[in-house]
């Protein structure tokens, strides 16, 4: 509510103040989407690419841990 009240205090009508706040909010959301989504997509691709090696390392570690506990 405070951005709308602030804009009204400098002379904007409530309709214009609400519209400005809405446009700024949607703009920030779109900017974040265009910045964050490509990074998240690339990280997902890296995860899928590296998953077999990670699972092999996990399997090797589990076998080592099991043998260390068994002895």
Automatic annotation (TrEMBL):
Keywords: Membrane, Transmembrane, Transmembrane helix. It is found in: Membrane. The keyword Protein transport does not apply. GO terms for cellular component: membrane. Pfam families: AI-2E_transport. It is a multi-pass membrane protein. The keyword Ribosomal protein does not apply. Its main location: membrane. The chain crosses the membrane at residues 20-41. InterPro entries: AI-2E-like. Belongs to the autoinducer-2 exporter (AI-2E) (TC 2.A.86) family. This is Uncharacterized protein. The lineage of its organism: unclassified sequences, metagenomes, organismal metagenomes.
């Amino acid at each position: 509510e405070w951005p709308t009240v602030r804009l009204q205090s400098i002379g904007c009508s409530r309709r214009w103040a609400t519209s400005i706040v809405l446009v700024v909010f949607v703009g920030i959301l779109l900017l974040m989407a265009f910045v964050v989504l490509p990074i998240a997509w690339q990280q997902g691709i890296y995860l899928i690419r590296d998953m077999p090696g990670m699972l092999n390392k996990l399997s090797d570690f589990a076998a080592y841990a099991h043998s260390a506990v068994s002895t």
